[in-house]
Amino acid sequence: MIMRTAAGFVTAVVAVLCIVLAAMPSAALSYAYRAGHPMYFGGPRSGVLCTGSYTITGTSGSFPVTAGHCATPGTTVFGTDAPWGAVAYAKTYPNTDTALVRASGGVGLYQMVVDPRTGATPGDGRVTGIMRTSAQSRDALVGKMGVTSGWQEGRIRFWGYHPQYGGVLVCHTATTLAGDSGGPVWRMDEFGLRAVGITVLRLADGSGGCYHPIDHVLKAWGARLNVFPSGSVTYSEATLSVPGSLPFVNLTLGGASARSAPSSGATTGTPGQDAPTVVVTY
């Protein structure tokens, strides 16, 4: 049984993660960021609304990640009522859909996952590792956080490829709504709370959503993910391919033409011309 912890009580369910390796935020911090928190781009409780995800670290520092289609570099980021950072970098093509936020002074970046609607966490919420793309098999149970849908869970169904929205995308049955873009996808099992990916699209028929696998995100930025209790993880070329048993579909954004898998790169299998087409949207 996986446990969900909320202020003062424990109920059955699942959990997630965050980056500054500390048990509790310091009272001196102006804002304590965790994966799952809302990100408003443009103004307090206004403008474009997306969800924040894991914090990744590289030579330029540590940056919370969200979906690249949410905002452009220079855009101020608000939690709810106050600004706490700005978009430093964004990539939407090719093969990633992610943006990095540079936090202002006094902001703590915690590698923990929380439900933005209730404040509940999976276990203690601390991220302890990642689930490699090669291990993301069909019917595997995953959870996600989104500012609109909250804590949702579902099973992996299939994968597709769209160069503008993450390249390799894995899709699941967990409820995904507008505003959930950028949020953390995770799994909690005998290996602990692991980062799985970042939400970038939802299925137009309402049957689930799609995410960019976390190791592909790390590769795109040449970054690592700091984890509890100490240390960090990064991508491995050997584990970037999806499992051969995971069905492939053509992903099409709205009415645009479907995209097929690349002839080479971090994928497996040879998608046929008769692969089904699945319509996706933001």
Automatic annotation (TrEMBL):
<dbReference type="InterPro" id="IPR043504">
    <property type="entry name" value="Peptidase_S1_PA_chymotrypsin"/>
</dbReference>
<protein>
    <recommendedName>
        <fullName>Peptidase S1 domain-containing protein</fullName>
    </recommendedName>
</protein>
<dbReference type="InterPro" id="IPR009003">
    <property type="entry name" value="Peptidase_S1_PA"/>
</dbReference>
